[in-house]
Fold these 2 entries.
Entry 1:
Amino acid sequence: MSTETLLKTPLHALHLELGARMVPFAGYDMPVQYPLGVMKEHLHTREQAGLFDVSHMGQIRLTGANAAKALETLVPVDIIDLPVGMQRYAMFTNEQGGILDDLMVANLGNDELFLVVNAACKDQDLAHLRKHISDQCTIEPLFEERALLALQGPAAVKVLARLAPEVTQMTFMQFATLRLLGVDCYVSRSGYTGEDGFEISVPAANAESLARSLLAETEVQAIGLGARDSLRLEAGLCLYGHDMNTDTTPIEASLLWAISKARRADGARAGGFPGADRIFTQQQAGVSRKRVGLLPQERTPVREGAEIVDEQGTVIGSVCSGGFGPTLGGPLAMGYLDSAFIALDTEVSALVRGKKVPLRVSKMPFVPQRYYRG
Amino acid sequence: MSELRFTEDHEWLRAEADGSVTVGITAFAQNALGDVVFVQLPELQAYDKGAEASTVESVKAASGVYMPLDGEVLEVNDKLDGSPELVNEDPMGEGWFFRFKPTDAEAVAKLLDQDAYDRLIKANAEA
């Protein structure tokens, strides 16, 4: 795709001004790193605060008395009892129980839900919502209208409190409409780095002034998609299209925790989402393969797509995400493994350039999450 | 004194007094790669020109380092095992990759000289 056809976020000019290296990502021209470089950007986020432009992601508003009930028909998550001012992780499933996308759902109150979906899936997600629930609620894409910034790291709360002191009262996954620099923003205490932090949905026209104001704080550096990926990998968080897709179910993706109790086979509102039967069968009978954490036992990074073999050299899985963790100080990966090998500390190998690199099945996150739970 | 030579794959070569040739990646290459976290160095053996003798892994991706000429690798820079960041910090010096004996001693001089390499970088930047 040539750069002329790539979409631009409202912060595009700011990225260029900051000296970002731009790459095509999900149809957008996005900053992969700034002059600081991926390693230092990553470490800065864990030590202070990083500002990420994630405006390429899709923001969608659902409105109506039946919006929560309608959305429940598409996700294995409790939306009806999601409290006002809270956000929850969810996924759209297909009839086979595969994952169409993962998303965040917030309850704004007044029969309004606010969704954030992946950039590469947003058109398809919108079509999916329209096809299945447009007769039950109003579906409003905010793709061009709003930008999305993430302020992540231990200093994020201190920085954002200078604009809105109320944020210190919020806890992990809480959601509020707050005025930042005189503009109404949707603010959630969440993110994709494993750190405390916030995601801020701001009208597109006000995004650059908010970003500049946050970047002017001494604790804050602009952080690109390169560090965003290494941060989320250390935190054990899935990347759609890599660690899960339409061929993997939430059970195989080790995302059972995200299926709400109320929607499970023995729950108050059991099933009623696409693929429920298959997912429940898998939950009970087990699965043939599962996503696990993998720690290479040598310095060699093991990348996505690498085959995983047992002692005899039989292929027993593959790596879905892999790279180097700056905070961990070494390589790390996630992969799908034959269930016979998923026990913690099992020794397997990945094939990298024809050589076996030993891997150990490891718990995730690789770096402790530091969410603020009050 | 020996002049530097370059390949289109952004390697530099320096002919040493003993007839061997030292190889590394250029400042341009390390900058494009970003933070280097691992270098798989070649074996002490003969490689054909163009063979992937070494691999450099940055935070972002793995990239091959190709044998610039037919020859036999005599020595590798073991320091890169513990300090791969030397490739970023001093690509033309402490961050060298390996030293080899070219099969054809005259071949090195036929590679790109500094001017030709600078023109290549400039052309890349404008492409």
Entry 2:
Amino acid sequence: MAAPVSACPACDAAHIAEDTAGKGYRGNGQEAQRIMLSLPTAHCAACIVGVEGSLQQLDGVRSARVNLTLKRATIEADPGVEPQKLAEFLTSIGYEAYELDAGALSTTATEKSSRDILMRVGVAGFGMMNVMILSIAVWSGAADATRDLFHWVSAAISLPIIAFSSQPFFKNAWAALRVGRLNMDVPISLAILLAAVMSLYETAMHGHHAYFDAALSLTFFLLAGRYLDHRTRAVARSAAETLAALEVPRAHRIKPDGTDEVVSVAELKIGDVVRVVPGARVPVDGMVEDGESEIDRSLLTGESLPVFAGPGHMLNAGEVNLTGPLTVRVAAAGKDTALHRMADLVALAETARNKYTSLADKAAKIYAPAVHLLALAAFAVWMVISGWDVRLSLNIAVAVLIITCPCALGLAVPAVTTAASGKLFRQGMLLKSATATERLADVTHVVFDKTGTLTEGKPVLDNMGDHTDEDLALALALAQGSSHPLAQTIVTATTAAGLRAARISEVKETPGHGISALAEDGQDLRLGRAEWLGARGLDRTATYLKIGKRPAVAFTFTDNLRDGAAEAVADLKAQGLNVTLISGDAPAAVQDVAFRLGIEDYRAGMLPEDKVAAIEALASAGQRVLMVGDGLNDTAALAAAHVSISPATALEATRVVSDIVLLGRSLAPIAGAVTLSRSATKRIKENFAIAAAYNAIAIPIALVGLATPLAAALAMSFSSITVSLNALRLRGFR
Amino acid sequence: MNVLVYLIPISLLLGGVGLAFFFWSLKSHQYDDPDGDAQRILSDRWDKAPPED
């Protein structure tokens, strides 16, 4: 069967799986739909077989193929098979799974550029091996015509390959030079170009030394580093897309009879009306029909002040609804929304926001000017010594450039980050920021949020029997307007009990306090914190409902500790880190959790601004703070901390500001991640030291004019291999 | 040294065959899921991969 080359490898993979499926279910004749599931905990051969095998047993599933590198399953199924059901099925048999929006996942672009770099690496490797073999003949004593022949053959192989393979360096160097800056690619490009031109000239002049092998191996090693870097980012980006897809694909569509239905964003049509709860991203571009709220547009426009949104205002997908529930008439959905066009800009904004200078940048800042000055100095000094012999002086300057060229430096960071992030990814942690490991290594103080972070964040309403149906109906109506976990629990519990929401108006959420509204009979309604209602708080997790002048009634909840929370806290403390628990919850509940986890330092009743103040106080006391949190009220604190982690269950707005996202349910990997990033940072510094040591030996040799092509090749290969091996030691870490 | 006239083209040709093989493996998506492929070989389930495209 000669299928055309597909733009989507996963589709091809799905075809194979179809061929291999024992059942050979060919579908019901209708066009298949493609479903993608994220499998954050898949890690072994048994998982592949388990997931693929059990999915293929299901009705309507034609094929399933797991990609373990991207931790994803691609499923071909009959139309009408619900992705949510498949994800729930897999989770129920022990393979944690989340649904992905297959339409929004742009695997093709990254796959293509990754393959492009790999192709250049392959070509450079081919050229390097051939030219090396020819060079060995020259080094071992080929002379005169034979040497010239070998040099010419080398030139014929090298020049086109350099022109093809080194393009990424040339492009980056040119981009930097055009705006008058220096980056790592400038000395690299200069060394490659000078080496090639100089060697061509030497070959034409029947010279002894040609550096074609050096130019090619430089290209090869540096491209290999570039490829590793690219791969790490591609996997991280793919997982980040996973997270984006976690939140966006569903929208609350309002049916003509006024009830909500949850639908996939892909199903929305222009003109539909959707409900957007506070704390959630707006899923579509559209116009506000009903409701008033504030909108955080910082992600899309850079406006830091929230703007007002009321009927008639336009909203864009990706904006965060802050306070009140809104109904929005759809103007564009899915790939046509502003969010999708902005995705690249968002990535840029996030890197720009990050003021931390990475170790690699620090090294490049010292390195690039130093190398150029050194080569220039060598040229000038040798001009004087040799009595204006340009050929000799230029030869030595090129030798200096080649020998100092950052093969080892170019590999030092990517090799380590690849090993470290690969390791962390396998443990279920996604690094969103390239410098997250470096910053995580500095951490001296860990701050945890309680609800949803240390605890499951799935509170259970335990006193529904104490309330009248009328109160419950009002509570349901108020709670519907909030994404606060307690409000959501009230909604679930009361809806499950068959209650319908009472009619209320002017719903407004005051973040950190609660929700207020007007009842049909004009009474003030408030659902929220005891202080805000003027009620006396109970000694446990509860929210309070106040109707008019009646005394407030309490809704009480119980919450379980999150899986791995105890291990994480114990391990972090064992590492000598200070652990603090900061929560907006009632003192008794916070104390209870702190006691169960052995945290001595805990603060309760903290508002969002108090959390930021606490983090800033720690920072000004010289502490590097790791903040772990999940809620809307933690967002500011997460952004203020030196490095931040949020669980996959956190609100989208929260995950956007955190550096690391936990893909699984457990908190246990956090302590290991801190240790791992410490040793990763140590390896990076070791690698810089190794590169510097090689240079310290090689530069004097080059300066006195003794750097033959053989010496350059040896120095380059040994330093590159040493740093790569040093980085690989991380893989065996624990 | 006349033998070089044959040997150099032959070695380049062999290298070129290797390169072509590499291109083929790249085109047929063999580097898309290295972790998965490493694990799949341990499974005793019949699998016709890699694809013939």
